[in-house]
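Quick note —
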Amino acid sequence: MSDAPVFLFLSFEHPNNAVDTVAEAMALGLRAHGVDAAVCTLPRDLPKLAQLPPERVAGLMSLGSLPLTARIGGRLLWEHFPVPVSLFLLDALPYDLARVPGMATFLEAALQNPRLSLVSPEDGYRRWLGEALPVRWTHLPFGAFPAVQPGRVVEPPQARVCVIGTVGSELGGSPVGETLDALLQRVLGGAAPARRARLAEALTAPDAAAMPALTVCRELGWSPADALHSQRLPVLIAIDSWVKRERRLAAVRSLAGIPCDFFGRGWAELLGEVPGFRHVGQVHHGDIARLVPHYMAVLNFDPNWSHGVHDRVYTATAMGTRVLTNTNEALAGAALPGDLVATYDANRPALAQTLLDAGWLDALPAAARPRAELLAGHGWAARMAGWLCDMPADSAAPAPRDTAPTALRTAPSPAAASATPRAASPAPAHPLIASLAL
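Predicted structure written out below.
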């Protein structure tokens, strides 16, 4: 590192190096605009981070909420470094609130300190929950992770579809094989049977919303603030995970008769033996761009997102490979070439027919070649340029060094909150915090 202040991306150890790959790409994107940037992988690099003087740090972006649980000298990272700190949500906000200790602590601080913010690659949750959670929350779409090899002889693709992803270990904890009726009985046992039946019908309707959590709240009359209540978060993520799994399985089952290669865990166990389906193993995130040109198409899943697509869409199209992905509001703004994208309905997938209708089964495409306009338009340099230019001026100014840190305290249960006065603090806690699980 130079002596200039450095912007740090905080990663954590994750299977297939997925998080480190994203952090490195973001750092490279900032460097393209003259910002010194580096990646720290926690907890491995925490001792090095602790040795860095706070004045040497220009800002922090945490990939997921887990790195922000680290401490230096007993202080949380956003207390130790008085700089802009952003949390890039790798999972939807309800998952982090329900599963990661300290997420609500960060939100409590963000409600009182404008230099703390949320960033998400999908914008549907911000549009839905943003009014109930008035922190600075911006949209930063995923970018491409290309691997252009100059001078390489490009080989024609094989007549197979590439499927990348994992199924059966969703974060909501719904056991494999659990029916929707059994799930709703388990998590909403106190609700009337007729009400649970209406909810099940709404979740599986042909016109069901992309975000199951939104459907649950609409059917049960829960407001956005209700959705963030500590007792309701486990309900939402359990149902969300169940729908996500079923939508993925339904999409893949509709490919019966089309040769497919699967990269990821769980497919063989849940699908059984299907003629033409091969279960290949794992692929490192950084190797996806080199893998996908060998296939006639890549299947992408964003079954529970309404406004945002996975980086696989941008990576595959930038490499000149066709993508089969579910409909999503973000696709129109992405302006991807029509010859590289075919869409399907996540609620009623018929992927073999979609491939046929698109003409992709008529003949194999020519050898995939990278698309310059997509490499430039959806690369991380372009993504980080947009993020930099949208950053408010007040968030870029470090807080005064003598400012006392935000009071951190465990939120009581709703009943206790009404009976027990909270300790005095520099600023009153936002009313939402009393309902969050710390």
